[in-house]
């Protein structure tokens, strides 16, 4: 009865806590002579083929890939050929998983930056668009109250102004000076007709009025100042938005770069080959990881110089948009500025009319005004109690923020990205490697990494001991994106100085793949990016190979530096349902084995 009670209790414990069986087996193996641990370096981290089989199976993989006992590794192409727990099938599976590891860790970081550009570009575009729309509504509401029918009859002039401003911001090839000149010319003609309604003016006479506008200056200095302010603010605003779009496009294109077969093999050696040696808990050495990542990311590093300069000037333009080129401070009070121009015209109407009649000739009276010269009902008279718009606070538009806060937020997010490509290898290795001055996985055993570190970039990879890189070949996608970064940087510089900038359409193609990396001998063709992830501005890109595996994580759940962690709370994600079912199954199978082991330990 006591045996049955202990048996029942043990079964319940193992079913609820399946990892307990693994602990018992590991303890038993350390007490049993002739295990894999006897043939490997000491240190408490080598758990033998049985432990490897358990760790492999707990991840949801077929345990038949792992040998039950150590064998010579002549059949291996990537991992060490000394005593091993791995078969040729194990190594093939490791190569597939290594491709996923690269996509998740490296491409995942690139995807995060791309998503950041997508979000910021969308937020900024929404803010500027709503700012223009709000200014149009504000002017309409104020002018309806002030001028009534007279404004409504001539509202097309004002509607065309805001429509042209929208079109320019969205990329239409318009000259802002011409837009403002056309607006004030049309406004002058209509106001002159209304203020001199007792005369008849034909098209030729109205053109004569327009030709004299520079000498007459009926609106005072408002057109000149407003034209200069609008031009600088809109050039800066439009170029900044295009700059954000270029950052998004570069990340989209780079996320589709192929992974070379040499890189995948190096990743397998870095992350998975420790299993073959029974070192299921060993972290890679820092130098080993850096050499692998610098070889895998050699093409990416070639973007660094152009990218750094691009981020620098995008940040500088953001500072200008927060200061003297602030589109919000220009477009928000534009209704008041136009009203000031109208009042200037009213105050100078008699003087302006005399000069026009002198230069263009005396017009004839209209038939109506030969009988009635009282035109008070057609006067633009507006005498407000004070200048409108004084003391205005910056508006909070549909985007939910002002331009000042928006630009500060952009600059804070841009600052860490300046050296993104230079820091990427260190960023990836930071969470993978063992602490400094400690034993670690050096590619063949648990020791210290003695190979020299290579520098970043293609030119330095000829001496890389871990990744074979053809330093004679350049990557066409990287070259294309480098050129695009240089072109937008020149536009950012011009916009920063207030110079006009031509707009060019960004083709949302995402770039092409490097031919040298496609169709490798690892069982994949093309880029190997199968799962599409869609952004919110018409882009799509891929970040993972399509392989039949049940998990992407190579390390057992007890490992504190697991590659993939929950973004919400930083904890290691729970295993997939298939892995949990497999774990339950193994617990049941190991039930009797664990009981026997526990009895032997107790004896």
Word description of this protein:
Helix content is 56%, strand content 3%. With 603 residues, it is mainly α. The strands form three sheets. The chain has a two-stranded antiparallel ribbon with strand order 1-2. It has a two-stranded antiparallel ribbon with strand order 3-4. It has a two-stranded antiparallel sheet with strand order 5-6. Helix 15 packs parallel to helix 22. The longest helix has 60 residues, at 88-147. The radius of gyration is 36 Å and the shape is rod-shaped. Mean pLDDT is 75; it is low at 22-46, 373-380, 382-393, 507-581 and 586-603.
Question: Brief description of this entry?
Answer:
This protein has 603 residues and is mostly helical. The chain has helices at residues 2-16, 19-31, 48-58, 88-147, 149-153, 155-170, 176-195, 203-211, 213-216, 222-254, 261-271, 273-276, 286-296, 298-301, 304-322, 327-331, 334-347, 349-360, 367-371, 403-414, 420-430, 476-496, 577-589, 591-602, and strands at 66-71, 84-86, 440-441, 446-447, 532-534, 540-542. Helix content is 56%, strand content 3%.
Short descriptors:
two-stranded antiparallel ribbon; disordered C terminus; rod-shaped; mainly alpha; 6 strands; about 600 residues; about 5% strand
Please describe the topology of this protein.
Layout: H1 2-16, H2 19-31, H3 48-58, E1 66-71, E2 84-86, H4 88-147, H5 149-153, H6 155-170, H7 176-195, H8 203-211, H9 213-216, H10 222-254, H11 261-271, H12 273-276, H13 286-296, H14 298-301, H15 304-322, H16 327-331, H17 334-347, H18 349-360, H19 367-371, H20 403-414, H21 420-430, E3 440-441, E4 446-447, H22 476-496, E5 532-534, E6 540-542, H23 577-589, H24 591-602
Antiparallel strand pairs: 1-2, 3-4, 5-6
């Amino acid at each position: 009865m006591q045996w049955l009670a202990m048996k029942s209790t043990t079964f319940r414990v193992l079913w609820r806590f399946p990892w307990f069986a693994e602990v018992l087996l590991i303890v038993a193996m350390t007490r049993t002579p002739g295990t894999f641990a006897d043939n490997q370096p000491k240190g408490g981290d080598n758990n033998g083929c049985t432990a490897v089989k358990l760790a492999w199976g707990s991840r949801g993989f077929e345990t038949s890939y792992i040998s039950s006992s150590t064998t010579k590794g002549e059949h291996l192409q990537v991992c060490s050929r000394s005593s091993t727990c791995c078969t040729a099938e194990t190594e093939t599976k490791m190569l597939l998983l290594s491709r996923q590891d690269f996509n998740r860790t490296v491409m995942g970081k690139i995807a995060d930056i791309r998503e950041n550009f997508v979000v910021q570009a969308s937020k900024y575009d929404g803010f500027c668009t709503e700012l223009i729309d709000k200014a149009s509504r504000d002017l309409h509401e104020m002018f309806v109250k002030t001028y009534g029918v007279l404004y409504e009859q001539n509202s097309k002039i004002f509607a065309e102004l805001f429509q042209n401003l929208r079109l320019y911001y969205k990329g239409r090839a318009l000259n802002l000076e011409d837009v403002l000149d056309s607006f004030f010319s049309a406004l002058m003609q209509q106001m002159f007709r209304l203020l001199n309604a007792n005369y008849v003016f034909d098209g030729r006479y109205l053109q004569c009025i327009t030709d004299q506008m520079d000498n007459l200056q009926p609106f005072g200095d408002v057109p000149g100042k407003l034209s200069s302010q609008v031009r600088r603010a809109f050039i800066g605003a439009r170029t900044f938005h295009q700059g954000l779009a270029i950052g998004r496009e570069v990340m989209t294109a780079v996320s589709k770069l192929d992974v070379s077969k040499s890189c995948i093999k190096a990743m397998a050696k870095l992350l998975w080959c420790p299993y073959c040696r029974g070192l299921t808990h060993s972290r890679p050495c820092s130098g080993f990881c850096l050499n692998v990542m610098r070889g895998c990311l050699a093409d990416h590093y070639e973007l660094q110089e152009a990218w750094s300069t691009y981020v620098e000037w995008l940040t500088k333009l953001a500072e200008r948009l927060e200061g003297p080129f602030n589109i919000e401070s220009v477009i928000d009070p534009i209704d008041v500025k136009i009203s000031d121009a109208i009042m200037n015209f009213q105050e100078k109407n008699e003087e302006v009319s005399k000069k026009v009649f002198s230069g263009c000739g005396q017009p004839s009276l209209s038939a109506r005004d030969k009988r009635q010269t009282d035109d008070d009902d057609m006067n633009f008279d507006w005498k407000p109690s004070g200048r409108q718009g004084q003391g205005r606070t910056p508006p909070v538009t549909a985007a939910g923020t002002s331009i000042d806060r928006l630009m500060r937020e952009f600059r804070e997010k841009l600052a860490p990205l300046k050296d993104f490509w230079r820091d990427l290898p260190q960023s990836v290795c930071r969470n993978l490697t063992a602490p400094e001055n400690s034993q670690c996985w050096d590619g063949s055993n648990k020791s210290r990494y003695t190979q020299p570190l290579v520098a970043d970039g293609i030119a330095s990879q000829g001496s890389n001991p871990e990744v074979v890189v053809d330093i004679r070949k350049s990557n066409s996608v990287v070259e294309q994106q480098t050129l695009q970064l240089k072109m937008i940087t020149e536009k950012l510089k011009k916009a920063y100085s207030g110079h006009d900038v031509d707009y060019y359409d960004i083709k949302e193609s995402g770039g092409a793949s490097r031919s040298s990396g496609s169709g490798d001998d690892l069982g994949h063709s093309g880029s190997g990016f199968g799962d599409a992830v869609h952004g919110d501005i018409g882009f799509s890109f891929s970040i993972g190979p399509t392989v039949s595996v049940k998990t992407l994580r190579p390390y057992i759940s007890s490992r504190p530096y697991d590659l993939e962690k929950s973004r919400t709370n930083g904890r290691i994600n729970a295993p997939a349902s298939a892995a949990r079912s497999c774990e339950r199954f193994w617990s049941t199978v190991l039930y009797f084995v664990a009981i026997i082991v526990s009895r032997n330990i107790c004896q």
